């Protein structure tokens, strides 16, 4: 099993359906009250890539990608068109989008993350697969330069500064990112006649933990 640093064709994922999944365990008490808990610290995303297929050429591209990943064996990158950047959907990523840490004068490495907030609640999602050439960073309000002031590991989402940010300085970042996923099936069934009639194959995709 390996992770292939290659993105599923973005034109095929554009028409897919999917999103985050949570796991909640609910215990009903004898007095009618509930106890709710979750074994998951982070959500897990699922998609159906079959809905993005528009032609037989798309089907051929899907099968080639599936065979090259050996079905479920090797994971890969996926662009979630509904959630793929640090900024609002209509905006371009900016270097102040997401707070990723606070300087202490010693720490050089910071992990990319994205906040999901509603009311008093906030969830921090780890970002493990940033997209090359899209990562911006700042210390305080000063924008840093990739390749000069910092480097980013595209396979882990770790940002490393050449000099540690000063004590108390906010470290922020903006970026585009992919989701690490794999096929959730070892079989793709396509009928040309059915496809031409509008019957699309189901191609389940599931996020992997890294």
Could you list some keywords that capture this structure?
2 domains; 210 residues; 10% helix; single chain; 4-stranded antiparallel beta sheet; 3 helices; mainly beta
Distance between the termini: 12 Å
Number of domains: 2
Strand residues, percent: 35-45%
The H-and-E topology, N to C, reads as EHEEEEHEEEEEEEEEEEEHE
Multimeric state: single chain
Helical segment count? 3
Major beta sheet summary: 7 strands, mixed
> How would you state the average pLDDT, rounded?
93
Question: What spatial form do the alpha-carbon principal axes imply?
Answer: globular
Structural Rg? 20 Å
Task: Detail the poorly predicted runs.
Answer: none
Total number of β-strand segments? 18
Q: Decide which structural class fits the backbone.
A: mainly beta
Level of helix content? 10-25%
Brief synopsis:
Residues 4-209 form the DUF2460 domain. With 210 residues, the chain is mostly beta strands.
Write up what this structure looks like.
- This protein is mostly beta strands.
- The protein has 2 domains: 1-83 and 180-210, no CATH class; 85-175, no CATH class.
- The chain is 10% helix and 38% strand.
- The chain has 3 helices and 18 strands.
- It has helices at 10-13, 56-68, 192-196, and strands spanning 3-7, 17-21, 25-28, 34-37, 44-48, 75-78, 98-102, 109-111, 113-118, 121-126, 129-130, 136-139, 142-144, 150-153, 158-161, 170-174, 177-183, 204-207.
- The strands form 5 sheets. Strands 1, 2, 5, 6, 11, 17 and 18 form a 7-stranded mixed β-sheet that branches. It has a 4-stranded antiparallel β-sheet with strand order 7-16-12-13, with no helix packed on it.
- A hairpin with a 2-residue loop joins strand 12 and strand 13 (142-144).
- It is globular.
- The protein starts with a strand and ends with a strand.
- The mean pLDDT is 93.
